[in-house]
Amino acid sequence: MDFREYPDREMLALSLADRIASQVAQHLRGNDGASLCVPGGTSPMQVFETLSGADIDWGRVTVFLGDERWVDGDHKRSNGRLLRRHLLKDKAAGANYIDLYTGDARPDDAADALEQALQPHLPITVALLGMGNDMHTASLFPGADHLAAAMANDAPALMPIRAEGAEEPRITLTRPVLSDAMNIHVLIMGPEKREALERAQKLDPIEAPIRAFLDNATVHWAE
């Protein structure tokens, strides 16, 4: 794990956005396309705002979330709504976007079609992960109904998942597809999350799902 501490959140956002843009651009120099997997929530908003103006060939970049809440795209809790407002604009408006919310009644009904849509863009070029105070990442929550299956080496690319700490059913990318990303970044902010990260390093990934990704990740932290 490469741990990077920044003097403030603005510097973190600028540096991380630049690093992601550089890795995507480098991949595009030798490949037809690149894929970028990003988290929901409010923590990455500044990163998204900066990244949206990056001078890369966005038309060859496919963007998708690491997980989505099973709510309509206009719902205030939709991760896709946040992404459209803060990342998929300016130069990044030209990116190809795979929406994990399909409008099906349940995420279970959408999993197979979404996996087919994602497969051409794997392995992920750059995966940006977040982490909750409970040490979950994406929608890989401790105690979730299908966590063991989603963490298994033979898991499909994404799975429906439900957890006590999640207000609605979700769909999430799984451990193998996230851990196979060529570049993994973890974004955390504040003392509570740094403490949670330190706890996670001593636990099994079933207890602390973020642990499964730390060995090959660059962790970016600011107070």
Total strand segments: 10
Rounded to the nearest angstrom, the distance between the terminal CA atoms is 19 Å
Low-confidence stretches: none
* Proportion of residues in β-strands: 15-25%
Give the C-alpha Rg: 16 Å
Largest sheet: 7 strands, parallel
Global outline:
globular
Strand order of the largest sheet: 1-10-9-6-2-3-5
Number of helices: 8
- Give the proportion of residues in helices: 25-40%
Provide structural commentary:
The protein is built from 8 helices and 10 strands. It is an alpha/beta fold and 223 residues long. α1 crosses α2. The protein is globular and about 40 Å long. The mean pLDDT is 97.
Describe how the helices and strands are arranged.
Blueprint: E1 2-6, H1 9-30, E2 34-38, H2 45-51, E3 61-65, E4 67-69, H3 79-86, E5 96-98, H4 111-118, E6 126-129, H5 147-151, E7 158-161, E8 170-173, H6 175-179, E9 183-189, H7 191-200, H8 211-214, E10 217-222
Helix pairs in contact: 1-2
Features:
single chain, about 220 residues, alpha/beta, 7-stranded parallel β-sheet
Summarize the structure.
This protein is α/β, with parallel strands linked by helices.
